[in-house]
Amino acid sequence: MSVDDILSNVSRETIADLEAYSGLVLKWTKTINLISKSSHAELWSRHVMDSVQLWRHVTKCNHLLDLGSGGGFPGIVMAISAKHGKNIDRVTLVESDVRKCAFLLTVIRELDLPAKVITKRIEDLPDMTADCVTARALAPLSDLLGYVAPHLSEGGQCLLLKGGKADDEIQAARKDWSFSVEKSPSMTQTEASVLIIKELSRA
Predict the structure, then answer these.
(1) CA-to-CA distance for 169 and 28, rounded, in angstroms?
(2) Per-residue pLDDT at 145 exceeds 80
(3) Residue 178: helix, strand or coil by DSSP?
């Protein structure tokens, strides 16, 4: 699916914020490693659009929690969605790297996003009580669900971006976890998928 297809129902104001964010990513990547040099040319298709596709999976969400935010994919992109009224009220980004947190705070300030940043390791977080939890390229699913579980509210959902081994990760995770899962094909990468996980509990 093309970038134009993914953005077909997105307002010009939202696209302008996504473009401004992309510009900040490229500017800051000169001094800190937000994205690899090899993916600069694919910033929109590989990073921004990979995150934008999550928007269609978000039902009404008072609080979205993004774990291991890094350079803001998908957390900042979800915060841009929140700013423009896409079913999200507020976003919390969790990142342990101080320099990356400085970048995230800069983006939030410059784009006036309804988001905050917590500079902590995920293991050290207090209960965040989130309706929706997102993560991208953070950990194998079984470990990732261990990070998510303390913070997901009853009835909440996880939106997790996964690569070609998603089925293997789901099978391995079921040894320790009980959950329902919908695997939605990625709109940006052939073998990748979005896992929509609900009803999460220890097996």
Answers:
(1) 33
(2) yes
(3) strand
Phi, psi at 34, each rounded to 5° = -85, -45
The pTM of this model reads 0.92
- Residues near 36 by Cβ (< 8 Å), separated by ≥ 6? none
Indicate the pairing of strand 130-136 with strand 152-162: parallel
Alpha-helical runs (H) found in the chain: 3-6, 12-28, 49-52, 75-83, 98-111, 141-148, 166-173
How many CB atoms neighbour CB 187 within 10 A?
18
- Mean pLDDT of the 27-48 span: 78
* Helices and strands (DSSP H and E) totals, the chain: 7, 7
For 40-70, write each residue's pLDDT tens digit.
667 877 788 889 989 889 988 999 999 999 9
In the chain, how many domains are there? 1
What residue numbers bound the domain in which 162 lies? 3-202
Cα distance between residue 2 and residue 105, in whole Å: 30
Which residues does residue 75 pair with via DSSP β-bridges, in sequence order?
none
What CATH number did the domain enclosing 95 receive?
3.40.50.150
Q: Round to whole Å and give the CA distance between 154 and 31.
A: 41
Q: Using omega within 30 degrees of 0 as the cis cutoff, is the peptide bond preceding 74 cis?
A: yes
